[in-house]
């Protein structure tokens, strides 16, 4: 997939998330199906935060390494290589113990979620044209996937949003 196709697919998934949000009350968006499970609102917050503060921030680091920091985290891990070859994350649940650093806050409003999703689309559109000239030797390490280039961090945003569609459907069923 090229950058344009990734961006188009990402915009479609984001529009899907936004349309889905319209069908829920704030009470439903904050309802957690279990003690250590995220609400639908928290899941959307997670997507927004991961995209803005990890994935796209690392894509930018690959594009504009400052003079003090040589950006090169080496090669992808075996898991990372497999994921990018498949073009998607495996359809498995990943559970991380609750923690202040990782557990997303409950949303304050639907507007906050919609605006957050739209801000990720804006950032993706800003970064996309820069990827054409991105140096392939500039990588930033992902905790499980190893050194990723700017384009791979960019692709990961779309793959991550797609991966969470399963969780969204599971959370919707729990609300039904």
From TrEMBL:
<dbReference type="Pfam" id="PF12867">
    <property type="entry name" value="DinB_2"/>
</dbReference>
<protein>
    <submittedName>
        <fullName>DinB superfamily protein</fullName>
    </submittedName>
</protein>
<feature type="domain" description="DinB-like">
    <location>
        <begin position="21"/>
        <end position="167"/>
    </location>
</feature>
<dbReference type="InterPro" id="IPR024775">
    <property type="entry name" value="DinB-like"/>
</dbReference>
<dbReference type="InterPro" id="IPR034660">
    <property type="entry name" value="DinB/YfiT-like"/>
</dbReference>
<feature type="region of interest" description="Disordered">
    <location>
        <begin position="90"/>
        <end position="110"/>
    </location>
</feature>
């Amino acid at each position: 997939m090229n950058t344009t196709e990734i961006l188009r697919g990402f915009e479609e998934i984001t529009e899907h998330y936004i349309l889905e949000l319209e069908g829920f009350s704030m009470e439903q968006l904050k309802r957690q199906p279990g003690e250590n499970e995220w609400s639908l609102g928290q899941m959307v917050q997670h997507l927004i935060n991961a995209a803005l503060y990890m994935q796209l921030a690392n894509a930018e680091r690959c594009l504009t390494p400052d003079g003090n920091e040589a950006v090169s985290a080496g090669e992808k891990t075996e898991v990372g290589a497999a994921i990018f070859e498949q073009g998607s994350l495996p359809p498995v649940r990943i559970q991380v113990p609750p923690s202040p650093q990782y557990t997303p806050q409950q949303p304050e409003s639907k507007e906050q979620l919609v605006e957050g999703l739209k801000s990720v689309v804006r950032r993706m559109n800003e970064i996309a044209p820069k990827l054409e000239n991105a140096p392939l030797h500039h990588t930033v390490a992902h905790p499980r996937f190893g050194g990723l280039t700017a384009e791979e961090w960019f692709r990961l945003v779309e793959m991550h949003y797609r991966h969470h569609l399963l969780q969204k459907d599971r959370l919707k069923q729990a609300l039904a």
